[in-house]
Specification:
Blueprint (H helix, E strand, L loop, with lengths): L4 E3 L2 E3 L2 H16 L10 H5 L6 H8 L4 H10 L13 H6 L1 H18 L4 H4 L3 E5 L10 E5 L3 H21 L4
Antiparallel strand pairs: 1-2, 3-4
Amino acid sequence: MITSLQDGEQVLINQSQISHHVVNFYKNFFCTNIVLQEPLLADEVTPKLITDYINALITLLPSHQKIKAAVFALNKDTAPGPEGFGAFFFQHYWDIVRQDVVNAVLEFFSTSLILLGFNSNIIALLPKISNATSIDLCRAITMANFKFKVLSKIIVDRLAKIVPSIIFEE
């Protein structure tokens, strides 16, 4: 557990402030400022292979049936995730956990949360150096869990349908 973190001249000790600082740091780190980007030649000469229609299909909210199909397509004998539950648990107790799994998947697709891990409390910060005091001296790692496996399965199934039209043999 991180008990303190330096933000400029300020030392954060409140867990809520620390969490907020970590989320904002990585949002800023992984987002680009469009104003500072110059148009790239590659953008001008590369054909647009993903049409608006295909993009809509890829980002469409999955149905409850598609989510269930993804859950039951996963190998039930795999090792459990960091929360202690593997596919077998979710498949066996589907009637009980169904709504939570569906809600998590739909939240991802409806909000496009890149930093979903922060909301699921599965981010760990490893210091790059001993006695690291600020976020830029730490490395964030995520531990994959069952929800990410379900999301990945849905996304992979969707991409498999369009990959042949956007990746050429050459």
